[in-house]
Structures are given as structure tokens and as C-alpha cells.
Amino acid sequence: MSTIPYKIYLEESEMPKYWYNLRADMKKKPAPLLNPGTHQPMTPAELSGVFCDELVKQELDNDTREYPIPEEILSFYRMYRPSPLVRAYCLEEKLKTPAKIYYKFEGNNTSGSHKLNSAVAQAYYAKKQGLKGVTTETGAGQWGTALSMACSYFGLDCKVYMVKVSYEQKPFRREVMRVYGASVTPSPSDTTQVGRKILAEHPGTTGSLGCAISEAVEVAVSNPGYRYVLGSVLNQVLLHQSVIGVETKIAMDKYGIKPDIIIGCAGGGSNLGGLIAPFMGEKLRGEADYRIIAVEPASCPSLTRGVYAYDFCDTGMVCPLAKMYTLGSDFIPAPNHAGGLRYHGMSPILSELYDQGMLEAVSVPQTSVFDAAETFARVEGILPAPESSHAIKVALDEAIKCRETGEEKTIVFGLTGTGYFDLVAYEKYHNGQMDDYIPTDEELARFAAKLPKI
Ligand SMILES: *Cc1c(COP(=O)(O)O)cnc(C)c1O
Known about the structure:
The structure is a single chain. This protein is of the alpha/beta class. The chain has two domains: 28-64 and 115-228, Rossmann fold (3-Layer(aba) Sandwich); 71-112 and 235-448, Rossmann fold. It is 42% helix and 16% strand. The protein contains 18 helices and 15 strands. The strands form four sheets. A seven-stranded mixed β-sheet has the order 1-4-5-15-10-11-14, with helices on both faces. Strands 8-7-6-9 form a four-stranded parallel β-sheet, sandwiched between helices. A two-stranded antiparallel sheet has the order 2-3. Helix 6 (142-154) runs parallel beside helix 8 (171-179). The termini are far apart. The structure holds pyridoxal-5'-phosphate (PLP). The site of pyridoxal-5'-phosphate has 18 residues, from helix 12 and helix 16.
């Protein structure tokens, strides 16, 4: 076995040629999306009004194990993939841990996160179908940025509804989207029926992801030649993000490395679902065992404190119902929550696997996340996104446990992106203006009581 380099890159010939569909190896499949009116499973015809045809197929396909990645997407991936799998030697030394720590770094592209992996796929299929453009929502702006890049590459119009508070607080992210030709509208806006309704009911609201989704869907279904795209949660997004895990697995197999613990942050579940996909596949087939840990913010704890039930994906209740761990579609994390990962629900695939006991979940308070981010940045050089730093926090905790027990575990975590646009959050942390608000059981129960009765 050759010595393990500091950064493991794959040769072009070793690069994944397919996405891996984890659902094919699940005995109990994730629950289907339901029509919000009839409560019957969404049909391909119903879904094709909202999503591109090929993406509808991928969304509903629980059986095909491998999807060849189209050549056009592979050539886009070549611009920024493979992403490096890095051995965190300096971090190990700093922690004086016998653990071996690796991270898969997805921040090496202009959009700054893993979201580009699915954005390029979704834009490609829209173009192939002859559409004019796509609509979407974005919170902090990473997804909108990634989609703008992908749409400009394929010559598609891109309309982004950006949560108003982020639109105002993250003007630079907005400008990156405009560099790539997207139109960016603060949400809620008066450009849609649902936006006008929300504004009338909640004047002065600073918006939420659920509300921006409702607006983007309305614009897609009411404009011929447009479809809606979503950056996380959906099965198709996890399928595209499997490129992260497949690359990681190929790189680890190349050097004979077997992870004991795999850790990822969990917002809607796409990076975690992608990173763990081939490893979880082995676990489901009984070929190997891994500890898999989802890390979420204590202020938005859908897996650790949510309910596994059908819920709306959006505030306006125009989207299909998904069965997922959810805090309720009206849930909005406390205003000083700075670290992303603020969606109320979790990917149906990860929700089902969590329900089956195939993965663990922990929630962490945000100041501890920023502590971990700085520890990491100071020795590994990369300024991590706050979202990614949730995974760093738990990787540090596990490595410190190894120091105490002397175990030489191999830990791999997903470093999903960079934090250059998150410096307001870092500033709050430095100035001691960040607290660790955690919702009470009573608060969560109030939102859970409003779940649709299915
Ligand atoms: C969007 C985002 C996440 C969370 O989304 P998932 O769908 O849960 O992966 C994590 N990290 C970064 C950098 C992001 O931009």
C-alpha cells in the first residue's frame, strides 16, 4: 500500500461515471410524496407540471441502482472535481488524538459549496427538455449562487426568490448571482399571489425558506417553459450529491482506508445523504458497518426533536406533502440563529434511515460550532462555512474521545463549503453577540400540533 498523501485526488480515469441511488438498496423505501389535495401519491403527470421530466423520473425511481452521469455534466464536473479528500494531519496533532481524521472538501468552486453538484444536473435536464428557465428559492444564497452558475453555463434563465433577511444582509451573495445573470427577488414579494397573501397576514416579515419556496413554485407553474428546482431534501438531489460519496469511497479504497465514523451536517440532508450513500449502501446490504452521524443545530433540531410525519415542504402549502422528520412547516429558527441549516424538515430518505436506526443524529449549540470552526481554521487553513462547522464540531468531539480511550479510529467528515460570505456571523461570535437559543418543548409542540392529519 502506498503512503497516504496529504490530499487524495483521483485521476481522471478513476472519476465516478455514475450517481448511486441509495433507495435501490433500502428494503423499506422512503415514503412517497403525496398530493396535498387528495393525499394520494403524486403521479409523474402531476409532478411534471413542477419539475423537469427526467428529474421526475429520478425522484420516483426507488429501484435503479446506478445512473450514468451524462457526458455534459461530467465535463462541467471536471471544472471543479474531483474535490480533495484531505487528511487533517495538523488537526490531529493539535488535538493530540490517535484518531485519523479526513475531510472531503466541497468548497473549491466559486459557489463555495457542494450545491453545484446538483445545480448543474438540474439545469442540464431543464435545458435538454427545451425549457426557457427555472425558478428557485435560496436562503443564505449558496443554492441560488450554484444554480445561477449552472444556468448561465447552459443558457437558461434563472429566477431566484431569496429570503428577505438574507437579501438585505448578504448583498454580496446576491451580486454573485447577478454576475451569472440570475434575477434575484426578496421574498416574500408582491410579485406572487402567495407572497402578497403572506405579506398581508404578516406585515414586516423577513421571510423564510418555506415562504420563498411557495413563491418560486407559483412562478414556475404559471409561466410556460419554466420549472421549479430545489437544492436539497428531494430524492433526486441526494442522487446527484452521491458523487461526493462515490468519489470518497473510490479514494479511500485506493489507499485501503476504512472509515469507522462518517459525519455530516444536516440541513435538508443533501450533502450528508450524498457523502454516506455508498457506505450506507454497504451497510444496508450487510457488507460493512459504519457509525454515521448527522449533525444539526440545536436551534433547528428536526431529526433529534422533530416528529416523523407527513408535512408540507413550504409555508404556502402548494408543494407535495413529504413524510419526514419535521418541526412543522411554520417553524422558523430564532432570529439570532446564524449558522444556516434552518429548514424545518429532513430528506425523506435520511428520515426513513434514521427511523430504521441506520444513522445517529446529534444537535449542537451554535457557539460551540463557531469554536470548532476556529480551531479548524487555525490549523487546517480553510475558513469553513458555519453549516460545515457543525460536522467539524462532532468530528472534534469524536477525535477527543479517541484521545481519552486511545482508540485509533478513522473519522471522515464532509466539509461542505467556505465561510467567506458568513463573516457577519463570525463577527457576532467574536463580539460575544451570539447566544445559544434552544426552542422549548412547548414551542415545538405548538408547531407539531399544526401538522396535517394524514
Ligand atoms: C446548503 C448547505 C448545507 C446544508 O444543506 P444540506 O442539503 O443539508 O446538505 C451545508 N453546508 C453548506 C456549505 C451549504 O451551503
